[in-house]
C-alpha cells in the first residue's frame, strides 16, 4: 500500500484532534509542524477545568460562542507553554482560520496555513495572510482512515486465506473461515 503524503498525514492528525473538541457547533483540530515534526496540537473547547459546551450548551454572544478557545489558539498556547519555537512552522487546520486566529498565526511566525475545509473565509484574513507572505493552501482530507484500515485488514485476511488454501483446506472449509472473518470486520 502506498504511504500518504506529508500534507495528508498532518491533516489527518488535525482531524483526529478535532474528535476531542467539546464544541457542539463545529469540531476543529489544528496541528503545528516544524521540519516535518509535530510540535503541538489543539482542538476547540473550553478553558482547562471549565464548563464545556457539550455539557451546558454554548455561551453565545453576537452569534459566536465565547466559551470556546479555538483549536489554532490552543495549539499556539501549547507551544508557548512548553517552549516550542513557532518561527518558520506550518499549521494544518480542519477549517479555515477565523480572523483572530489568522492574526495570532501571523504574529507567531508561522509561514504556511493548510486547511481542509472552507469556513467563513474572511476576506480580511486572506488579505492579512497575503500581506504577511503566509502561504495558504486548501488541502482536503483525501483519505477515509477507517476505510483504509478496513481495506488493509481485508488484504491481510486474503493473504492469510491464500496461505491456508495451500494447507489443503477444502474450498467449503475455506469459505466458512472467510465468511466468519468477514463478519468480524
Topology (elements, then pairings):
Blueprint: H1 6-18, E1 29-34, E2 37-43, H2 53-56, E3 60-61, E4 64-65, H3 71-82, E5 90-95, H4 99-108, E6 112-117, H5 123-131, E7 135-138, H6 145-166, H7 171-184
Parallel strand pairs: 5-6, 6-7
Antiparallel strand pairs: 1-2, 1-5, 3-4
Provide a descriptive summary of the structure in words.
- A 5-stranded mixed beta sheet has the order 2-1-5-6-7, with helices on both faces. It has a two-stranded antiparallel sheet with strand order 3-4.
- Helix 4 (99-108) runs parallel beside helix 5 and helix 6 (145-166) packs antiparallel against helix 7.
- It has 7 helices and 7 strands; from the N terminus they run αββαββαβαβαβαα.
- It has helices spanning 6-18, 53-56, 71-82, 99-108, 123-131, 145-166, 171-184, and strands spanning 29-34, 37-43, 60-61, 64-65, 90-95, 112-117, 135-138.
- 45% of the residues lie in helices and 18% in strands.
- The chain has 185 residues and is of the alpha/beta class.
- Keywords: Hydrolase, Metal-binding, Zinc.
Amino acid at each position: 500500500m502506498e504511504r500518504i503524503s506529508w500534507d495528508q498525514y498532518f491533516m489527518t492528525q488535525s482531524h483526529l484532534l478535532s474528535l476531542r473538541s467539546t464544541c457542539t457547533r463545529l469540531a476543529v483540530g489544528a496541528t503545528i509542524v516544524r521540519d516535518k515534526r509535530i510540535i503541538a496540537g489543539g482542538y476547540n473547547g473550553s478553558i482547562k477545568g471549565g464548563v464545556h459546551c457539550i455539557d451546558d450548551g454554548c455561551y453565545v454572544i453576537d452569534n459566536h460562542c465565547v466559551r470556546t478557545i479555538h483549536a489554532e489558539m490552543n495549539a499556539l498556547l501549547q507551544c508557548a507553554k512548553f517552549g516550542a519555537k513557532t518561527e518558520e512552522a506550518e499549521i494544518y487546520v480542519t477549517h479555515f482560520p477565523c480572523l483572530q486566529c489568522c492574526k495570532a498565526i501571523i504574529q507567531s511566525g508561522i509561514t504556511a496555513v493548510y486547511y481542509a475545509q472552507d469556513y467563513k473565509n474572511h476576506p480580511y484574513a486572506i488579505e492579512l495572510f497575503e500581506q504577511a507572505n503566509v502561504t495558504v493552501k486548501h488541502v482536503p482530507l483525501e483519505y477515509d482512515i477507517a476505510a483504509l484500515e478496513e481495506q488493509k485488514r481485508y488484504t491481510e485476511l486474503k493473504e492469510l486465506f491464500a496461505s491456508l488454501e495451500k494447507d489443503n483446506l477444502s474450498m467449503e472449509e475455506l469459505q466458512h473461515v472467510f465468511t466468519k472473518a468477514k463478519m468480524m470486520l
